[in-house]
Amino acid sequence: MRKGSKLTPEQRQLIKDGIKAKWPDGRKLTDEDKANKSAARMGWKPSEETKRKMSEAKKNNPAFIAMVTERIKQIRPTKESLAAHYESIRGEGNPSKRAEVREKISDNRKAVWSKMERTDQKLRHGLEVKRWRMKVLVRDDFTCQLCGEKNYHMDRLVADHIKPFSLYPDLIADMNNGRTLCKPCHLKTKTYGTRALFPKEE
């Protein structure tokens, strides 16, 4: 068949008959067919040329653009509905101003603070220590002082106390008692966890 030629009614009927022979219940795929298609598509990414052609096809197809726009309008909330929602939560309509909700929030806060009744826990999680940690990381340029690895992900770096807090609580916010370590190096230190309290004899 030449490129751009149209199918005749006989050719279309043959295609329909072939589809019905393969899928008697219509064009529904079996679980095996779906698994095969999924495996074939896995890891596939369109090339830049394919992306360009798809973009041009969308631009040259007003019906497709109208269909997408209509679907977006159906999904996206209208300005009137958003305005009504914001108006409902203002003033007395705000749930946090109801007595039962405020009581529940208060109970949750008390439950959290009851776990931090110990003085050492309040010190460890206080604002002063959080500021000290950031100052130590900035001073060391977010670089591990043992292996030299540099990382700007805050959850992968630790501001370690050279003299452990369990033995020297007065030095908890001393800049000279802090150093930046990555988590693997922190686990290897002699003062990690309870090692400072129960040192092994060498």
SSE blueprint and pairings:
Elements: H1 9-22, H2 31-41, H3 48-59, H4 62-75, H5 79-88, H6 99-114, H7 119-124, H8 127-139, E1 157-161, E2 178-182, H9 183-188
Q: How would you describe this protein?
A:
The chain has helices at about 10-20, 30-40, 50-60, 60-75, 80-90, 100-115, 120-125, 125-140, 185-190, and strands at about 155-160, 180. It has about 200 residues and is mainly alpha-helical. Among the domains are: about 85-115; about 120-190, no CATH class. The longest helix has 16 residues, at about 100-115. The radius of gyration is 32 Å and the shape is elongated.
Features:
mainly alpha, two-stranded antiparallel sheet, 9 helices
The strand line-up of the biggest sheet is 1-2
Q: In whole angstroms, how far apart are the ends?
A: 84 Å
DSSP E strands, number: 2
Structural class: mainly alpha
- DSSP strand (E) fraction? under 5%
Helix % is 40-55%
